[in-house]
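Hey team,

Sharing the DUF3789 domain-containing protein run so nobody has to redo it. Sequence (44 residues) first:
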Amino acid sequence: MWHILFDLLLVSAGMGMGVVLMCILQVGKEADTHLEEMERSNEK
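Structure output:
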């Protein structure tokens, strides 16, 4: 029984870390796009 609960805990932790990683990557992509737009507006 403990083995099943431990596996469930590990799966939940892995999914949580995956979601956090995807959020970090998405925020980085948005920031990169924002910086590119600022550079384009400064060149004009």
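DSSP finds one helix and no strands in the chain.

Ping me if you want the raw files.
A.
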